[in-house]
Amino acid sequence: RRTGFPEVVMAEGKTPEQVSEALEALLRSEGIAIASRVDPELLDDLEIPEDADVEYDEAGRVLVLKDPEYEPPYRGGRVGAVAAGTSDLPYLSECATVLEALGIEVHTEIDVGVAGPHRLLAAVRRLRKFRPHAVVAAAGMDGTMPVALNAMLDVPVIGLPTPVGYGLGGSGEAALLGMLQSCSPGLVVVNVANGIGAAAAAVKIVRVCLEGEKPSKKPRNSRR
Amino acid sequence: RRTGFPEVVMAEGKTPEQVSEALEALLRSEGIAIASRVDPELLDDLEIPEDADVEYDEAGRVLVLKDPEYEPPYRGGRVGAVAAGTSDLPYLSECATVLEALGIEVHTEIDVGVAGPHRLLAAVRRLRKFRPHAVVAAAGMDGTMPVALNAMLDVPVIGLPTPVGYGLGGSGEAALLGMLQSCSPGLVVVNVANGIGAAAAAVKIVRVCLEGEKPSKKPRNSRR
Amino acid sequence: RRTGFPEVVMAEGKTPEQVSEALEALLRSEGIAIASRVDPELLDDLEIPEDADVEYDEAGRVLVLKDPEYEPPYRGGRVGAVAAGTSDLPYLSECATVLEALGIEVHTEIDVGVAGPHRLLAAVRRLRKFRPHAVVAAAGMDGTMPVALNAMLDVPVIGLPTPVGYGLGGSGEAALLGMLQSCSPGLVVVNVANGIGAAAAAVKIVRVCLEGEKPSKKPRNSRR
Amino acid sequence: RRTGFPEVVMAEGKTPEQVSEALEALLRSEGIAIASRVDPELLDDLEIPEDADVEYDEAGRVLVLKDPEYEPPYRGGRVGAVAAGTSDLPYLSECATVLEALGIEVHTEIDVGVAGPHRLLAAVRRLRKFRPHAVVAAAGMDGTMPVALNAMLDVPVIGLPTPVGYGLGGSGEAALLGMLQSCSPGLVVVNVANGIGAAAAAVKIVRVCLEGEKPSKKPRNSRR
Amino acid sequence: RRTGFPEVVMAEGKTPEQVSEALEALLRSEGIAIASRVDPELLDDLEIPEDADVEYDEAGRVLVLKDPEYEPPYRGGRVGAVAAGTSDLPYLSECATVLEALGIEVHTEIDVGVAGPHRLLAAVRRLRKFRPHAVVAAAGMDGTMPVALNAMLDVPVIGLPTPVGYGLGGSGEAALLGMLQSCSPGLVVVNVANGIGAAAAAVKIVRVCLEGEKPSKKPRNSRR
Amino acid sequence: RRTGFPEVVMAEGKTPEQVSEALEALLRSEGIAIASRVDPELLDDLEIPEDADVEYDEAGRVLVLKDPEYEPPYRGGRVGAVAAGTSDLPYLSECATVLEALGIEVHTEIDVGVAGPHRLLAAVRRLRKFRPHAVVAAAGMDGTMPVALNAMLDVPVIGLPTPVGYGLGGSGEAALLGMLQSCSPGLVVVNVANGIGAAAAAVKIVRVCLEGEKPSKKPRNSRR
Amino acid sequence: RRTGFPEVVMAEGKTPEQVSEALEALLRSEGIAIASRVDPELLDDLEIPEDADVEYDEAGRVLVLKDPEYEPPYRGGRVGAVAAGTSDLPYLSECATVLEALGIEVHTEIDVGVAGPHRLLAAVRRLRKFRPHAVVAAAGMDGTMPVALNAMLDVPVIGLPTPVGYGLGGSGEAALLGMLQSCSPGLVVVNVANGIGAAAAAVKIVRVCLEGEKPSKKPRNSRR
Amino acid sequence: RRTGFPEVVMAEGKTPEQVSEALEALLRSEGIAIASRVDPELLDDLEIPEDADVEYDEAGRVLVLKDPEYEPPYRGGRVGAVAAGTSDLPYLSECATVLEALGIEVHTEIDVGVAGPHRLLAAVRRLRKFRPHAVVAAAGMDGTMPVALNAMLDVPVIGLPTPVGYGLGGSGEAALLGMLQSCSPGLVVVNVANGIGAAAAAVKIVRVCLEGEKPSKKPRNSRR
Ligand SMILES: Nc1ncnc2c1ncn2[C@@H]1O[C@H](COP(=O)(O)O)[C@@H](O)[C@H]1O
Ligand SMILES: Nc1ncnc2c1ncn2[C@@H]1O[C@H](COP(=O)(O)O)[C@@H](O)[C@H]1O
Ligand SMILES: Nc1ncnc2c1ncn2[C@@H]1O[C@H](COP(=O)(O)O)[C@@H](O)[C@H]1O
Ligand SMILES: Nc1ncnc2c1ncn2[C@@H]1O[C@H](COP(=O)(O)O)[C@@H](O)[C@H]1O
Ligand SMILES: [Mg+2]
Ligand SMILES: [Mg+2]
Ligand SMILES: [Mg+2]
Ligand SMILES: [Mg+2]
Ligand SMILES: [Mg+2]
Ligand SMILES: [Mg+2]
Ligand SMILES: [Mg+2]
Ligand SMILES: [Mg+2]
Fold this sequence. Notes:
The structure is a homooctamer.
Chain A: E1 8-10, H1 16-30, E2 32-36, H2 40-45, E3 53-57, E4 62-66, E5 78-83, H3 89-101, E6 105-110, H4 117-130, E7 134-139, H5 145-152, E8 157-161, H6 173-180, E9 188-189, H7 195-213
Parallel strand pairs in A: 1-2, 5-6, 5-7, 7-8, 8-9
Antiparallel strand pairs in A: 2-4, 3-4
Helix pairs in contact in A: 3-7
The complex binds adenosine monophosphate (4 copies) and magnesium ion (8 copies).
């Protein structure tokens, strides 16, 4: 794939036939086929190739089909996945399932927020030990955890705002705005609930890191 | 005064004559006269009674006139005043100057944010020692510090969002929304840049606390 | 607890098992366990320890479990609870139920708005007699009552905007904005429908007031 | 005029020549010529017909030219004009100057807000005595006064939100939204700072009332 | 009633018992009892006094109960009711039903918009003949009809924006904003879908007009 | 040019050197060079080729340079240009100056709004006689004129919202939203104040119309 | 019809009787009757004249009835219809069905986005060959395709934003704003999901183009 | 530094003394001192250590001071910097100057937009040859270029929205929303005009990539 990230079928708003067909095509051409926003009812109605290895992440509503021969491209990649609260888990799960399907090792930390600084510091210590290439940080409500995390880690942190909350700003806007206004520079964000986008960003970072470890394939002679 | 908080003259949008007159009237009736949003140029044009004690807080643009006999009503009151960054100081200063004019002791902490957890924890330790009746926490940009502070203190924390920032949400909306969505319950807020409102809220808390230390003035027989 | 306010389980978006487990753990460690946004159907599915004292506030959707030995920490605390209209009651009830579970005496006033100034003045008179440490004022639509109340009382008033209304600003934004723009200084607010936050703020004020009545536990030597 | 309200020249964004010309034309055809948003500098540059009676309301920035023979059409009309604070006066003044130029008697009340219920009740008493055909109520910030006034008067109340305030909702949105969400039914509004619109609405009400006092000019035989 | 407009029970969000009780009380004290937002299912569950005259407007979801002796207070009042399209009718109907219950004659015009100028002009001619004290003009989508109508009539026009439309601004915001920005001065508005508010405003205008026709009850000696 | 519309240099935010250079390059390659948002002060500082024909539209702030040999490409094109009020003229002028520079005949109508239906109908009659290929309709405030015009003409109408107005929606949002919600289908819009965009859209329509009048250049054999 | 575009019955929010009646009337007077937003359930309940030719577009929810004698007015018209993704198809289909009912040839391109520049360039080549009078370009999410398309085609491009997406801006606002901010001048837009509006705009362009091919009906002597 | 990115002094809103002092301190402790938003007038007033190497980027308003001994930490790092138009350059320049100060090689591409697909494809080819670790893509108005770029590159792309534009969404909101809604997954964004944030994000990616090329410093034994 041009961007190093496999196409993901957005199942919402498609018929079972359309999703089944798209998955089969991807499975044949790529060896892996992923669909997001797959509700259990839809899952029942899908036509799934008999020879595929099937994994369904119910919380994250992600379906992964693999050719038994499929070789995940990003082995050696490491990504941290941090959730501010348990309500943020489904969004993080969507992201993590895709990362793991591609061979990336994921280290998860849950219930880590600025309201509990000692737990946050402990999680930071474990994350540092894990030496991730990137960290995805999911938070709703005030969205402050990714801001704090980004200040304490020297690896790229991808903020994933979630629609957890209610009242003014409670559909993820407060979290998103807070991350955009981060007082610790370098925090980047994807849109509210976009776990697939966060995964794709992390994959790009992993890819460029792993690439660096191999000898450069073609001589470079850029003239600026 | 009915609410225990003196009237404050909002100088912005008034002529020097109107402000001078209002201040003189308050000085005579209350023994203290406070004006907010007083720019240095306006200050020059004011008619200030010769016998008044004058204090001008340039950063906070607050002018305080006092009768030499004035007895500040809230001696014994203690309020913490915390700023996330130096850019937040003018807004906090407006608040602190008013509190001190009323006899309240103010303990100030500056440059305290979630990006520096050890500095934040140290500030929290000093604040606890100070035993404030309330804490005013000023922050712009992501507005996360008051959320963290409120989680670590058992006294009332009043969030004061500031218009420090730029881009989407940079006029204080991100900070305000973050505080409204606080994951630590009990954080209350006033509007963006409303240092006078934060002071008034803190004064009400101080007043009700000090009141409790004196014997109740009138017998109580509430029938619910 | 660090903040003097017990953890409250937000039941919405959790499974019965998750809620039951969280409640049991809190009951064992704290002697009290509170869950908010508990719908009657969820209530039926919960596993509630046999030895717990159970209270369920249907209007406010709050569930309180107590160890029979539990000693409420804030006896002697007094909080006023005022609703602009009957539609605002569920939000106020969430707040009041939590306050009472912690031992605080709550005085309630209903159907109090600026449209009926004599009723408002009568309620103010009763509230003054009650001598509350704080008042929670719930209002939707135009949200004006808390503004008026704050002008007439010398105790802290916490505005609780409610999503009562329709049309532009009818999900609580008009009420929230009006309170933020309060022409009477010192009104503080929590987010729309955040009865738990209002309770937590009131508890902090009660705590710091009651504390003042006891001899100071440790000598104080803050150096500013 | 078709609507019973004279055309008003909006001077802002027009050259002195354009404004002068438009005023002269109106003066000749209508006997009265009104311009709004006339700054003092603009006034200096205008070409004003020598034979005109000139009135300039500096606060409201309204210029009125009259033919000495002009007969104001709405004598006997009575309109109340109420301002929540002194900062709201310029907006109210724009409205009142136009009303008076048309022969309407205006009764003004200033500094009337929900924060001072006794002053509000006193103003209401005086307004009732005045027996106005309509009342214009100008308020910024929380915009609550027109809501309260509308609840206490049986005549039409026109809310005039003003851009007095700062922070979220401080350009008149909070005031406008509050009036739109008025818990007392029947409050109508014009846009923020639209004193001319408020005057025009009041004139229409006055006109239809005065009309009723005269014998109907043409027989009526509407068949619905 | 203080404002000349009867209290209207907002049925939405109330139990059948609460609505029944409120209606009975109003019926006894006022001779008339009105409830808005009454769905047919709710209607079935209400306890309606046997001796009441009952009227139910299904489109407008308004229920009116009258004592057989009730004497409508505003006989002689005339109000025009204009709808831009048929989708706007329910909102207009809510308004008209209340007006008629109070004795006001209502002249209705439907499907009148700026897209059909000849139909609009014809409606204007009929409205002029009717000689209304006020006109209520309901429009969704672009909301332009009330703007045009207000320019062609010399009586008060009350804009009633409706949530008819979709896409950006389609919940009534475009209609409301357009009316607030009306290029014909004097158009006043109530909130989106607020037919009760429009009725209350029209009643106030009718009342002050009819009043003018009777001899003044008490001598007037206002001193400005 | 690929799109049939010449590149226009947006002068705002560029140095005189940058603008001069860009204009010279366009003049050489295209025979015509246009810059928008050229303030008089900037004009003074520009280096303008001696051999160019120069036209400067002060109201619209557009500068046009032409090679004396330049042959305007759209002779025979006809576009109507309608302004709701005089304040909308600068925005319309920007559009019209560009159209005329390209050889298009422009018929202008001013001060045409729904508030004056007879003037609007007269303008429509004149426009129909002119037989334009397209009409650009500029309006601020309520933005209703383009909606009405689109309903009365069978040629494409391009709505050009202008930032004429004040208060809520007064920066062109009300006008833009109204046009997007147009009850007469087929009205298309460009962004607020985008006279260049309106010109470009009109040019594309003119081009495709004129094209139709010439024999088709290449045989067509599209297979769908 | 005055505008050259037939009236379309918006079925949503109407009863089956109202829709049936409106369709029958249009069929009799115009020879064609179109209804939009017709859900399959509604379709079952409609009374459809026996002699009508019936076409139902399920994806676009459009119903077209034709008199067997009906002569489509725009034969020879050609419109391109481009969808960024399959999720945008229903909105485009609504538009295309109406165009084809009126005799216009429609060339459709699907799954054309800036993420696949080679597919986009190929589609552009096919569109150029088709020589459309106008192109309708439907896109949700980022809405970038119409911007790119408009830059590559010299015919009018009508942007049709769709509510495909989620998170901030995901109801079509991001797509709409992007098109309004188009860096390629001349892109015009209709509101989110307004396929009927896009069809009407395309029809007006087709009509004025076809008109140009016929000899002018009446001599022209416009005096500007 | 904890995050691998040096502290940057935000000069806006600070006095020359405060900026000078902060820069000197950073210079002493880090060997490098950077200030952003430094206007030329401010620059004149700064006290700059004589022994420092000084670089001032006027377009980007960035000031860099270096100890002559300073060793840039990220030599070998490569970042692409792409601007949609010349108006976007200042924002990109702020970012590039900081990157280069830290030793990173920056390859810049200007005037690259979806409106010119061949220029975009050529830029993509040059960028691929450069083999960057990350790409920063600055765009205002419609903000589409970063979306397209992200689809064509397999390295991380950081969208930097700029406030280039006018009308609805013209302060960078349209660009930001478009990037958040990117149909190519993995595009991450920073806030409008936040060139410093984009630089910090790129530095983190460079750092983690370069790190991978060195032998791991400490044995890793994370237990998940
Ligand atoms: N849940 C998701 N959120 C965001 N993008 C997605 C999601 N699922 C799939 N995509 C991406 O959306 C784009 C359009 O998907 P589709 O509508 O299936 O053509 C593809 O680039 C997918 O990679
Ligand atoms: N300050 C004002 N606010 C609102 N409308 C005004 C104001 N001044 C004049 N108008 C009205 O604005 C309309 C357009 O005025 P003009 O732009 O002068 O043609 C006329 O109907 C005036 O009555
Ligand atoms: N006033 C304007 N409004 C909208 N677009 C413009 C304006 N002036 C120039 N443009 C277009 O903006 C694009 C970018 O211009 P530039 O920034 O000069 O490269 C070009 O396609 C111009 O045709
Ligand atoms: N132009 C800028 N945009 C965003 N963040 C900045 C900018 N300049 C400095 N910063 C960061 O803003 C934070 C607060 O800066 P200061 O107000 O100087 O304490 C620091 O983390 C800086 O790295
Ligand atoms: Mg959270
Ligand atoms: Mg901050
Ligand atoms: Mg209320
Ligand atoms: Mg006020
Ligand atoms: Mg309508
Ligand atoms: Mg206009
Ligand atoms: Mg799309
Ligand atoms: Mg751009």
